[in-house]
């Protein structure tokens, strides 16, 4: 056991308008509150599209819900002529405590390089938003370089050169496991998380190596416990299954499946 608080994150991707977002957050929080969820012991966060952040913020504040709010992306720039982008100061005003950076869909469809990811991490740090830095290998990289090489290199690249490292989270998501139904085994997730942690320790010291490391890729209520049994894996980043309040609350209550 570690003293890291497990983190259960729901990446909604480009799904749900703001009215549907309100309904889902309400249902999720009511379901977890009814089940006496201890939000301090297992942190739960949702990452809706930008268009829902203001509604989600208002709802969470009005109802005093304890779910955390995150954004799916952040601009590397402060302000100005960057059509379509959303800045860290705008996100901080919306009480976004977390932001996904470098998700494989952004790396793949929006050509986000390690340099862009690094600049976005700097923007998040600047505004006191905790980056959830996504790393992971493609099937081809898995075959040619093994499982840990790419995620470790992407982690180091995202964190290098910052004056000071603020709080951050690493989400290990093998690209071949995202939205495919193909899941890494708990042992594979554990091994890569351990390799990332060792690299963090070696490059950035003991404190950095205590960052939370998540697994993501086809996580469901019926397979989550396997991943979280490992002391190396501190939570999960969930895509598809986070769009269903029952399923996502089942994932958040993973401890009921773990015999401690
Ligand atoms: P998935 O997505 O759970 O639908 O596989 C995970 C992610 O992309 O974060």
Notable traits:
260 residues, alpha/beta, TIM Barrel, eight-stranded parallel β-barrel, 10 helices, 14% strand, globular, binds 2-phosphoglycolic acid
Write structural notes for this entry.
- The protein has 260 residues and is α/β, with parallel strands linked by helices.
- It has a single domain (7-257), classed as TIM Barrel, CATH 3.20.20.
- It is 41% helix and 14% strand.
- The protein has ten helices and eight strands.
- The protein has helices at 18-34, 50-63, 88-93, 104-109, 114-126, 139-145, 149-159, 186-204, 224-228, 245-252, and strands spanning 7-11, 43-47, 68-71, 98-101, 130-135, 169-172, 212-216, 235-238.
- An eight-stranded parallel β-barrel has the order 1-2-3-4-5-6-7-8, surrounded by five helices.
- Helix 1 (18-34) links the parallel strand 1 and strand 2 (43-47).
- Helix 1 runs parallel beside helix 2 and helix 1 (18-34) crosses helix 10 (245-252).
- The model has no long low-confidence stretch (mean pLDDT 96).
- The structure holds 2-phosphoglycolic acid.
- The site of 2-phosphoglycolic acid has 13 residues, from strand 8.
Q: What is the helix tally?
A: 10
The percent range for helix content is 40-55%
Strand fraction: 5-15%
> What small molecules are bound in this structure?
2-phosphoglycolic acid
Query: End-to-end distance, in Å?
Result: 10 Å
Name the strands of the widest sheet in spatial order: 1-2-3-4-5-6-7-8
Mean pLDDT: 96
Q: What can be said about the biggest beta sheet?
A: 8 strands, parallel, barrel
CATH topology descriptor: TIM Barrel
Tell me the Rg in angstroms.
17 Å
**N-to-C series of helices and strands:** EHEHEHEHHEHHEHEHEH
CATH superfamily: Aldolase class I
User: What's the CATH architecture name?
Assistant: Alpha-Beta Barrel
